[in-house]
Amino acid sequence: MTTLNPTLILAPVLDLVQADTLKAELLAAFAQGAPVTLEAGAVQRVSSPCLQVLVAAARRGAVLVNPSAPLREVADALDLSAELGIA
Q1: CATH no., domain 7-84
Q2: What are the structural domain ranges in the chain?
Q3: pLDDT tens per residue, the chain (87 residues)?
Q4: Are 37 and 62 in contact (CB under 8 A)?
């Protein structure tokens, strides 16, 4: 995560174990007051709890960039692509 414009590089596996860590990292990034970018190119697996965290982040203005194919597939299947800003 950088300090000027926070960018979080999402882990390849976003499972239940990662949900609390992801939430804490996002809260710290939002606390900096700058736009938050989520680099999602490495994501290979994502759980519902992490999707909830990502949707909440998107609602606060976080921008998801370079979403991986597995993330796109899950977002499409759950009708969350628009919510996550995935075109």
Answers
A1: 3.30.750.24
A2: 7-84
A3: 545 788 999 999 999 999 999 999 999 999 998 899 999 999 999 999 999 999 999 999 999 999 999 999 999 999 999 999 997
A4: yes
